[in-house]
Known about the structure:
The protein has 190 residues and is mainly alpha-helical. It has helices at 8-22, 29-36, 50-73, 78-95, 97-103, 109-113, 117-128, 137-157, 168-184. The protein has a domain at 58-184: Tetracycline Repressor, domain 2.
Amino acid sequence: MARVGLNTERLTVAGAELADEVGFDKVTVSALARRFGVKDASLYSHVKNSHHLRTRIALLALEELADRAAAAIAGRAGKDALTAFADTYRDYAHEHPGRYAAAQLDLDPETARASAAVRHSQLTRAVLRGYHLAEPDETDAVRLLGSTFHGYVTLERAGGFQHTPRSGGATWARILDALDALLRAWPTAD
Length: 190
């Protein structure tokens, strides 16, 4: 084991790379052991099981994505921030499909509270500050953006738009225009 330099961090990164190559659902301790040319037992001192490995990959992906989103929206407001934020998620999903899938893993509440998932909510709320939404509208807008971005990227990654004459990028730009208009004219509750 020492000759291949295995540790939890290296296994997590290798697992994330494997997820991007073969799909997050195919990442297991056995698949990772094969990648390193070792027996499964060699990994168990670093990861408890496949669920633990997949959780670590999810945490890595959430951290990477939050770092990218924070850098993208820094110094921006309104539609510029919205577009930078949305493009970051879309680009990450295309560049790292397995990691993006990992970021959607349902984490237990304690792990989620200690993860970068909290930063994602904070970053979304930072984007929304430019639209001056009060609660509960801000929470509703956070959910709207998350579901729109994830839904579009999921359909796009699955090839859902490849048989239409309009490019996915053109539609994406129009969706962002529409979201900006909606957020600026958010309906007030009675």
